[in-house]
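S.,

Sequence below, as promised.
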Amino acid sequence: MISVIIPHLDQPELLSTCLASLAAQTGVRQPYEIIVVDNGSKQLPTGVCAAHPGTVLLSETVPGPGPARNRGVSKATGDILAFIDADCRASSVWLSEIERQFADSSVTIIGGDVRIGFEDPACPTLLEAYESVYAYRMKEYIAKQGFTGTGNLAARANVFAAVGKFGGIDIAEDRDWGQRALSCGYQTRYCPDMIVFHPARKTFAELARKWQRHTAHDFARVRARRAWWPRWMLRTAAVALSPAAEWFRIGRSDRLHGIRARLLAFTGLTLIRCYRAAIMLSLAFGASATRMSAQWNPASMPALPRDS
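The prediction came back faster than expected:
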């Protein structure tokens, strides 16, 4: 049995698309269950889940995708846990690929490929072009840092129990969990045919919130070390100057086609890296990392003090 766990927050239309993609899976031999965990939406996606018979809808009041996933795990009955986000669409062989991988008893954790789902492949937007190259680089994360994103992750249930629950909203729960798994001796395997499609952000503000959260998590880790301030300032300078070195990566990417898309990706990269550098400077000079971290469900968060 495969248990598919989906955290959800105020995305009923995208959740409907996600559930439809799971209903259209092909080649799956064993049964699977689908568990949606709402994390404080203005309105529970009751109708969306009811349109897909057998879908279990739960609620988790503690804000954060990690606690929402943990709630789903607590009710899962499968010996394999598969995680996908509500705003993702699974490829038609997503579950059969997970099944095929776990037929090998040595496989404990797998992470798949996350691609941008273009609204119009012939005319990508700036953010679609940028995120096609720079978002969701799971193969690189697995190879270099030992973790994969929780929006396309599968693990044996007994392995998850041994590693422990996902962390809360104050940390990058995917990296934290993957690296804890690695420290326990479990290797994450990259699976290129385990594919989900994620829509690009619609606005720069959405991407800005993502980088506020991720940068705050990085800052918290760096600040725990000695002599953190000069290290952080050097990293800030490197981020600001980095676009010049990235044209080769954009030029050879197989996820973009045509000079227009590549120019859009480079423009987006430059804007984002400058914005990230500005966030890093603000944190170095006293901005609240705790407040920046509370971006999954800010409406559910209490008033937070400034970091000391």
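The chain has a mean pLDDT of 91.

Coffee later?
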